[in-house]
Design a protein that fits this description.
alpha/beta, 33% helix, membrane, globular, eight-stranded mixed β-sheet, 23% strand, 662 residues, AMP-bd_C_sf, magnesium, transmembrane, single chain, 32 strands, binds 5'-O-[(S)-ethoxy(hydroxy)phosphoryl]adenosine
């Protein structure tokens, strides 16, 4: 689409709020071709879930032993639980690798790896990946890792990350990937909570042209974790690396000695596959525990239908494997389906803002799955960065991680998709394991900004504070009223949290998101309604940042809220009061930011630090976050009721201070 036509199209769409039909050419070739087909399959999944999931499980997964029961759950009682395919046995790495080796997929690219330096590319066929995974599995066994043991992976986006995940799965060990942008302190917390005795890291990493000193960070964490017996180090860059005798070993050295054969372990369907830590409303992130059979089926099925997967597709999910999107849609979903998954180490704007288009053109990418924050940043950089590239191979676009505004949606659709590619906006969470609400491409009309309709087997509802369903277009809390196979099994080391956080209302899984449903039944997600921020698609708890801030000696109190940010979606706004006698200056501001970076990681660095004279509190001493959110958003026209405040003048002071700051 030419720029003028496109601008007119976006304006027209924004003014008329019309839905967009998928093109007939796309629908004709799609796996689900029409709304009628979607409705039929959805209805079947809801009317008789057990038969539906049993059939899907037989068709999509290879089992070593059949199940005794398909679905068992309790959402009502004091002890909520969920279980799929009890008694069945399988192996995830077998499903992702071995079963593809008998036919032509043996020589197909499973993983294409593009490093940040453009010349660094590697291709793993299914056979090669299988061999590497077997060797890595043997290496773990040799280091004493057994079924049920936890292994922490602190790696950048290198093939060894996917290989390590699959190697753990092969021997029934539980992997716990920690995003390589998190700090030593955060890594230590996760190693301790998971009880891992083996850690895999890399000596260095690249990010935006800079070198990350991952091994140094890992050493700092391991100094505090004497229980870790072995640290396997991937040699990402040929450069001096300190290795601790009796603990650290090189990946390459170990792998060279291992056999490329390793029998897959039989794993019961509800035994854990991985733990992934995610932020909630407490200061410490929770270890979300996912199982084996249900998770794999759900990742496999959503991958197939949400991305309308074809045998020859080159599929690119830009998410880091340190997050759930990378687990389900970079590694497990694509490989279980025998697809070609592109793994990319870089960032969208380095060395130049055309990096994504360069990669799409270089490999002929067909499906691109990325986050609204990336779309907004490309929108800001301008379309000249796209024009020099041939991106006509793209046939389908996906969005995940945060609400996408209709404006960003329409830009993505017209500038990147050229008005030709449907967009699957996918709403889901670490806890849900896979996509829950989405626009099934080719089948369902798209409404820019709406995640559309539930995936098969999913029963979302929007309820008001009285616990009843809201009317069309009326906002409420998004809940799910029955289980699905990808659902988390629990919170590691914290069974109480499973009930308290996710089942405060008997009968419903509470998502923590706000939403409304329009008159056509389409879901519109409005964002978190708990104390979780969404910064560039990353989940960060306000309590986590507050706890880091108050651990600085000079800080008396801290209150953190999200505020609208043009590129990040939400920015981090920290109100801080200091102890008497403290000098407020830029050094203190920098110290606070550094402290948060070293406590959590750079992604949690506050965008604004507002040194306040006091914080607004109720008479019982509770900080009024609702008001702080409005002040941070500079939306102070209508502050609602401040009569319950102990000192209402504090609010006015804060507003004046904000004006002086901006
Ligand atoms: C938000 C990422 C609107 C939401 C897969 C959710 C979204 C949180 C969307 C989970 C979307 C994710 N539209 N909001 N398409 N996708 N979210 O655990 O607030 O990192 O609760 O999982 O991201 O983030 P998480």
């Amino acid at each position: 689409m030419k720029k003028n036509t496109r601008t007119a199209f976006i304006r027209h769409m924004l003014e008329n709020e019309r839905s967009i039909e998928p093109s007939p050419e796309f629908s004709y070739k799609a796996l689900i071709k029409s709304r009628q087909d979607y409705d039929g399959m959805y209805q079947r999944s809801i009317d008789d879930p057990e038969t539906f999931w049993a059939q899907m499980a037989e068709e999509h997964i290879d089992w070593f032993k059949p199940w005794d029961a398909v679905e068992e759950y309790d959402f009502e009682s004091e002890n909520p639980y969920v279980r799929y395919f009890r008694g069945a046995e399988l192996n995830v790495s077998y499903n992702c690798l071995d079963r593809h080796l008998d036919g032509p997929r043996r020589n197909k690219a499973a993983l294409i790896w593009q490093g940040e330096p453009n010349e660094e590319v590697d291709v793993y066929t299914y056979q090669r990946l299988h061999r590497e995974v077997c060797k890595a599995a043997n290496m773990l066994k040799r280091l004493g890792v057994k079924k049920g043991d936890r292994v922490v992976l602190y790696l950048p986006m290198v093939p060894q990350l996917a290989i390590s995940m699959l190697a753990c799965a092969r021997i029934g060990a539980i992997h716990c990937v920690v995003f390589s942008g998190l700090s030593a302190e955060a890594l230590k917390d996760r190693i301790e909570d998971s009880g891992a005795k083996v850690v895999i890291t890399s000596n260095y990493g690249y990010r935006s042209g800079k070198i990350l000193h991952l091994k140094d960070i890992c050493d700092k964490a391991l100094d505090m974790c004497p229980q870790v017996k072995a640290c396997i180090v991937v040699r990402r860059i040929e450069k001096r690396t300190d290795m601790k005798v009796d603990r650290d070993v090189w990946w390459d050295d170990q792998m060279a000695a291992e056999s490329p054969h390793c029998d897959p372990e039989n794993v019961e369907a509800n035994e854990p596959l991985f733990i992934l830590y995610t932020s909630g409303s407490t200061a410490k992130p929770k270890g979300i525990l996912h199982g084996t059979g249900g998770y794999l089926l759900y990742a496999t099925l959503t991958m197939k239908y949400v991305f309308d997967l074809k045998e020859t597709d080159i599929y690119w999910c830009t998410a880091d494997a340190g997050w759930i999107t990378g687990h389900s849609y970079l590694v497990y979903g694509p490989l279980s389906n025998g697809a070609t998954s592109l793994m990319f180490e870089g960032v969208p704007n380095y060395p130049k803002p055309d990096r994504y288009w360069d990669v799409v053109e270089k490999f002929g990418v067909n499906i691109l799955y990325t986050a609204p924050t990336a779309v907004r940043s490309m929108m800001k950089d301008g379309e000249q960065w796209i024009n020099d590239h041939d991106i006509s191979t793209l046939r389908l676009l996906g969005s995940v991680g945060e609400p996408i505004t209709s404006k960003a949606w329409l830009w993505y659709y017209s500038a990147i998709g050229q008005g030709r590619c449907p967009i699957a906006d996918t709403w889901w969470q670490t806890e849900t394991g896979g996509v829950m609400i989405t626009t099934i491409p080719g089948a369902v009309d798209m409404k820019p900004g709406s995640a559309a309709l539930p995936f098969f087997g999913i029963s979302p509802r929007v309820i008001g504070s009285d616990g009843n369903d809201t009317k069309p277009n009326e906002g409420g809390s998004l809940v799910i009223s029955r289980p699905w196979p990808g659902m988390m099994l629990g919170v590691y080391n914290n069974p109480e949290a499973f009930k308290n956080v996710y089942f405060p209302m008997p009968g419903f899984y509470l998502t923590g998101d706000g939403a409304f449903r329009d008159e056509d039944g389409y879901f519109w997600i409005t964002g978190r309604i708990d104390d979780v921020m969404n910064v560039s698609g990353h989940r960060i708890g306000t309590a986590e940042v507050e706890s880091a801030l108050v651990s600085v000696l000079q800080v008396a109190e801290a209150a953190v809220v999200g505020y609208p940010h043009p590129v990040k979606g939400e920015g981090i706004y920290a109100y801080v009061t200091v102890k008497e006698g403290t000098v407020i200056n830029d050094d203190l501001r920098a110290e606070l930011c550094n402290h948060v970076r070293s406590n959590i990681g750079p992604i949690a660095t506050p965008d604004v630090i507002h040194f306040a004279s006091a914080l607004p509190k109720t008479r019982s001493g509770k900080i009024m976050r609702r008001i702080l959110r409005k002040i941070a958003a500079q939306d102070t026209e209508n502050l609602c009721d401040i009569s319950t405040l102990s000192e209402p003048s504090v609010v006015n002071d804060l507003i004046q201070e904000t004006k002086r700051m901006s």
